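FIELD: query
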Amino acid sequence: MTSRVLLFEEPERFTVGTVGQPGERTFFIQARDRTRLISISLEKAQVQALSERLLYMVREIKQSDPTVVITKLQRDDAPLDTPIEEEFRVGVIGLAFDADQQLIQVDLQAVSENESDNPEFIDVDDLTGDQDILRVLISPSEADRFSKRCNSVVGAGRLPCPFCGGPIDPRGHLCPRANGYRR
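FIELD: result
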């Protein structure tokens, strides 16, 4: 089976969100255009890393090419679009900047079913594998808005313990700094 590239060139909406209660949340990225809605799941750490790298890219784009206009877009606080049907789970994430079009390419590749495959990068020209790729082309302004939404979604989880920094469940947690007593 060959991989599919699910391409969204300048989608109507590219966002991140969660389903579930803090501590049990599933993170999703959605891309939507007129006729399609794709939802893919990923780990919280992947959302956080993607946000950091996109913000870094936007900063680098501003510094390297002052002609690129990066505007502040209206904040996207809307919930995820329904129905949320997971297309695949993300394994590898790739980012690139097309200076001619002034668009950032975000490639989100499905987890490999073969445990021996552990790619460190996505070879976008080699589509002989069996992992699907969601490819989204967004402007630096949209990348900035997406990153801010990522930070908001990641930060909306469980509060950290003021003593050990670990997440506090609604029932409390066993704090190592309090000799195992519940906080």
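FIELD: remark
The CA atoms of residues 68 and 171 lie 49 Å apart.
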